[in-house]
Amino acid sequence: MSSAGKTERDLLGELVHSPVWRVVLAAMREGLLIVDRELTILVQNPAAEQIFSPPPISSRPLRLIDLTRDPALHEGFLCAFDHGTSVELRFELRRGDPRTFHVTITPLHFAAEEPQAALGVFVEITALERLERMRRDFFANLSHELRTPLAAILAYVETLQETGLNDPEYARHCLDGLFRQAQRLHALVRDITDLAEIESGAITLSLEDIPLRAFVEDVLALIRPQAKERNVALANEVPEDAHVLADPIRLTQILQNLLDNAVKFNRPGGQVWVTARAVGERILISIKDTGVGIPPADQPRIFERFYRGEKSRSRETGGSGLGLAIVKHLVQLHGGEITVASTPGCGSEFTVSLKAAVSQ
Ligand code: ADP
Predict the structure, then answer these.
(1) Residue 12 Cβ < 6 Å to ligand 1
(2) Fewer CB atoms near the end CB (10 Å): N or C, the chain?
(3) 292 in ligand 1 pocket by Cβ < 6 Å?
(4) Does the CB atom of residue 309 touch ligand 1 within 6 A?
(5) Interatomic CA distance for residues 265 and 273, integer angstroms
(6) What residue owns the CA closest to ligand 1's atom 20?
(7) What is the pTM of this model?
């Protein structure tokens, strides 16, 4: 009891019923709970109600245990009462989609020496933690991707230093290897730069009416050398009248990446078809191959940065795992969508939907 004859609860009651306080509570995005020493809930703002979804109103006072059984949270409140100091902790809500919160618990001293109430503020950090995880994964993947070609370059240089120069044929073999690994590093840096540029929103598109068949023919010409080397046939079956509204540089990048994969993951004697059809105001461009296919479990993940299916097979092909992430971003930047359908052992089909150009 305070000198003015009011209990902590009276003082809190006065505060809680003030209209300004109510507005503040309702406007807060952070969840707020005030509990007494018995961990009975004295105040709960709407954000906290949304976090804990309290049980239906009962005749007895609501207690912290009715909202959550998390031992660390109970411990945190009790500790704030016992020591009279603030406590910070991480709280995980496992109901439905897991959510995480940073919680600060502060003992409240109004009139009495001992705190009779404690305030818990819940700040959601689910998205922040996810971003942090993505950042860590990105750097782990990146250093892994850099390490492989760099280790090979060092090995070639050491061999050249030790014996290679005495044997011109072997020296040439080392130089070829050095060139391949340097190209791989170059492609990786180019992909990372592209992705960073796209993700930062720094890219603006210059949309043009593109006659698709002729355009696809030009992109196929870029792919033809590697298709020939792997004995994969390329077919352009895009109708003459298909026109899309796209940025030519970015559309080249999209098609080149998809075609490159269609050849790379194909079998000798295989085939790649490019077709297109109009559906409403959109053109669906399909790149279909007779390659190794993509296991169903991998299909939703192949558009993630650095994700590669069945590692050993992909590594032989030397890609960075960034190609499809770039393609997806570029397609979305055009207001389009990309989907994949695939049967392992038979082949894959990537479908890109873009706006049709009106002049068709
Ligand atoms: P990369 O080609 O550098 O490995 P991508 O992002 O282009 O990276 O592709 C990611 C993964 O998706 C590939 O490693 C491969 O496992 C799978 N993939 C993509 N296209 C095809 C395809 N046409 N056929 C089979 N698998 C494919």
Answers:
(1) no
(2) N
(3) yes
(4) yes
(5) 14
(6) 261
(7) 0.72
Distance 256 CA to ligand 1 centre (A): 13
Sequential pLDDT tens for the chain (360 residues): 444 566 666 777 777 778 888 899 899 999 999 999 999 998 899 999 999 876 666 667 889 999 999 999 999 999 999 998 999 999 999 888 889 999 999 998 766 677 788 999 999 999 999 999 988 988 888 898 899 889 999 999 998 888 867 788 888 989 999 999 999 899 889 889 988 888 888 888 999 999 999 999 999 999 999 999 999 999 999 999 999 999 999 999 999 999 999 999 999 999 999 999 999 999 999 999 999 999 999 998 999 988 887 644 555 556 778 899 999 999 999 999 999 999 999 999 999 999 999 754
DSSP annotation of 187: H
Measure 310 CA to ligand 1 centroid, in angstroms: 10
Check if 348 has its Cβ closer than 6 Å to any atom of ligand 1.
yes
Q: Amino acid identity of 169?
A: E
Q: How far is the CA of 303 from the centre of ligand 1 (A)?
A: 9
3 state DSSP class of 22: helix
